[in-house]
Write a structure and sequence with these properties.
This protein is of the alpha+beta class. It has a single domain, classed as Aminoglycoside 3'-phosphotransferase, Chain: A, domain 2 (Alpha-Beta Complex). The chain contains seven helices and seven strands. The strands form three sheets. A three-stranded antiparallel sheet has the order 3-5-6. Strands 1-2 form a two-stranded antiparallel ribbon. A two-stranded antiparallel ribbon has the order 4-7. α3 packs antiparallel against α4. The longest helix has 24 residues. The radius of gyration is 20 Å and the shape is globular. This is Aminoglycoside phosphotransferase domain-containing protein.
Length: 231
């Protein structure tokens, strides 16, 4: 079930009453699961990801909901505008460059140049593989607290917090199950000793490979967007 709620009564001024989706938070149950349950969960996530990937949505980058991510009322016509917007947000942020040396902005400029080179390669590949830039709907806060699961089967029973959604190019939207990605974090920016992992490094890698095979068998376009490496 993709809908965040089954029923909503918003006749009251200061609160709403809604029907609770079935299932438990993935965060609170995953640690007790066996291998078969984990594999069924990966397959269930793949089913939802592929259904979202094939929804007919407007071919513009942006959000349906005012105030949701990205933090701008803009709708972006192409991925270049989208990336430039986020760099502009960083340049104007009051939280960077306070040391007066300007080094942060220099590094930001270097990073922008690097991303532009990757983007040029992506656009070159997209000329023969346009699916990479096809816009699809993406949940921007799909963490282990927003995924509800049936503990007995290992299947996903619901996904909540859909106010955090956006239309993105497929090359950005296609991703592995988020609870299996922790070994991709950069230790320069993440204190790995204070982060909660749901599974071991080896098991996460094995389950990512399972996910990769499932989506490759079912939807080659999604698989290609997932594994595409701009260099």
């Amino acid at each position: 079930m993709l809908s965040p709620v089954q029923g909503v009564d918003d006749d009251y001024r200061n609160f709403i009453v809604m029907t609770k989706l079935p299932g438990s938070m993935l965060l609170s149950t995953y640690g007790t699961w066996n291998t078969a349950q984990k594999e069924r969960l990966v397959a269930s996530y793949a089913d939802i990801a592929l259904r979202l990937f094939r929804l007919d949505v407007p071919q513009e980058i942006g959000t349906f909901v005012p105030g949701a991510a990205p933090p701008s009322p803009n709708v972006f016509k192409n991925i270049g505008q989208y990336i430039d917007f986020f760099f502009e947000v960083k340049r104007n942020s009051p939280f960077i460059g306070r040391d007066g040396s300007g080094q942060v902005h220099i590094h930001l400029h270097e990073l922008h140049q690097h991303v532009d080179r990757l983007l040029a390669d992506l656009l070159s590949n997209a000329a023969t593989n346009p699916t990479l830039l096809h816009c699809v709907i993406s949940h921007c806060d799909l963490n282990d607290m927003n995924i509800l699961v049936d503990e007995s089967s290992g299947h996903i029973s619901g996904i909540v917090d859909w106010e955090y959604q956006i239309l993105q190019p497929a090359c950005l939207a296609a991703e592995y199950p988020p609870w299996l990605l922790y070994d991709c974090l950069d230790p320069r920016f993440t204190d790995v000793t204070r982060t909660l992992w749901l599974d071991s490094l080896g098991e996460s890698r094995r389950l990512r490979e399972l996910y990769l095979q499932i989506v490759k068998d079912r939807d080659p376009d999604y698989w290609n967007a997932l594994v595409h490496d701009p260099g």
